[in-house]
Amino acid sequence: MRVVVLGSGISGLSTAAELLRNGHDVTIVSAEPITATTSFLAAAVWFPTAAGPADRVRTWSDTTFEYLATLAAAGTPGVRMCESMAVYRDEPVVPMWSRSVHSFREAEFGELPPGYRFGFRFAVPLVEMPTYLPYLRHQVDTAGARWVVRTVRRLDDLVDLSPEVVVNCAGLRAGELVDDHEVSPIRGQIVRVANPGLSMSIRDEEHPLGRAYVHPRAHDCVLGGSLDFGEWDTTPNADLTRSILERCRDLAPALADSRVLGILVGLRPGRGEVRLELDRAVLAGIPVIHNYGHGGSGITIGYGCAQASAALVAAL
Asked: What is the number of other CB atoms lying within 10 angstroms of the CB of residue 272?
């Protein structure tokens, strides 16, 4: 089929790649280069965050985990399995996502940062988006995708491309395009610092100053973060930067003297529940498959959602 995929973030590119593997003729429409997408800024560690419904997210998360683990084993640029630890001040219940990750166990006391009494160790995929997204773009280009650079203000703007089906991966823009008032931004601010030699990802989702995570990459560490629901401002907040540095140094004291390399702000596409469904009403005569509203779980459920979208196309 002739398929137009709207959007070039992780959801759009993953969906395009899956459709191309299934033999479809794919055109990707985007107003921006991949370097301008929220996906490109993301810390991109597998961890279900701010997305629902829980049962479908669990299925998509499991599918994506195994896919990314396979990419990591194959040496795919930017994808690796990362030793990780979630830490707690009070005794936690075993989280639901524990059944999806590799090598899950209780952390030993000597492994915990100062001030923490409990923790879990596990391994999850970590994706360095500035490396992986260009790789994924190259893959879809090699497979024959065409690109159209265009600002789309309504789905009717795609009719001249003669699609037999449209897959709407427009992220935060999707709300405006299809009059979906459930879509709203989830502002996220991260701080990039020089890596002092860390290799383990550490997170505290209940730090007194706000959620905290330290994700070491090849040439830096990504420190976060924030989940500011309904906030559109992309100006870095200096107070938040100081708070992120403080809480992340609690997790990894080795960061105390690390040089700040940059501060990034992105707007995640929030929605109470991911919208992944066939819609025959929004665009006259052309079926539309919606795949948006992934919240903070773009890398965590992206491939699972792409696979599900491709299955809806195959069923037409």
From this structure: 13
The CA distance from 223 to 214, in Å, is: 5
Q: What is the dihedral of CA 272, 10, 291, 139, to 10 degrees?
A: -170
Which residue range(s) make up the domain with 276?
Answer: 2-314
Half-sphere exposure of 75 (CA within 13 A, CB side): 0
Q: Give bridge partners of residue 118 from the DSSP assignment.
A: 88
Tokens 């810390």 found at? 43
Q: Tokens in use for 173?
A: 């823009």
The count of structural domains within the chain is 1
Taking Cα atoms as reference points, which of 23, 1, 3 lies closest to residue 168? 3
pTM confidence score: 0.95
Q: What is the DSSP string of the chain?
A: -EEEEE--SHHHHHHHHHHHHTT-EEEEEESS-GGGSHHHH---B----S---HHHHHHHHHHHHHHHHHHHHTT-TTEEEEEEEEEESSPPPPPGGGGTSEEEEEPPGGGSPTT--EEEEEEEEEE-HHHHHHHHHHHHHHTT-EEEE---SSGGGGGGG--SEEEE--GGGHHHHHT-TT-EEEEEEEEEE--SS--SEEEETT-TTS-EEEEE-SS-EEEE---EET----SPPHHHHHHHHHHHHHH-GGGGGPPEEEEEEEEEEE-SS-EEEEESSSSTTS-EEEEE--TT-HHHHHHHHHHHHHHHHHT-
CATH number at residue 220: 3.40.50.720
Strand partners, 245: none
Considering only CA atoms, give the Rg of the chain: 20
Q: What is the pLDDT of residues 269-303, one digit of tens each?
A: 999 999 999 999 999 999 999 999 999 999 999 99
At 10-41, the pLDDT tens digits run: 999 999 999 999 999 999 999 999 999 999 99
